[in-house]
Fold this sequence. Notes:
The chain is an alpha+beta fold. The protein has one helix at residues 2-22; strands at 28-40, 50-52, 59-68, 71-78, 83-90, 96-101, 104-111, 114-121, 127-136. An eight-stranded antiparallel beta barrel has the order 1-3-4-5-6-7-8-9.
Amino acid sequence: MIIKKLLLIPAMMFASFVYAQTTPNIIGTWEAVSAVSASGGTEDKQSRIVLSNKKDAAIIKFTISTQEGGAFQGETTWRDGLKNLVAGVFHRDGKTLTFSSDVGAGTGYVLNDEMEFCSASVLTTKNRASCTQLRKVK
């Protein structure tokens, strides 16, 4: 039993090292290249449906200020100037993201200087889903 526990420690340390090695540094500013979005009301709060393929249909900028290994924190900026804090993590593959904000949750991926950021609202007053393609600018 003691030997199994002793063998587990180096295995966990190695796994942590490998995980940290595969995570890219994403600190910086990412700007929208293209986007697609769909939004509408809810059963209790009806509103018109809006479908868009315009570049500014979703987030226009994502600034990542802090990263430690596979965990990061940043802020999205929308066309109307609204900003939301985002906390996220990388999956083990070092490319796939999962994140959460005050208004939604989502997934994405990072490949070199390109990122896809897809989210869905968690609001009771609005249904919204969007995907933005971003490029790192600094």
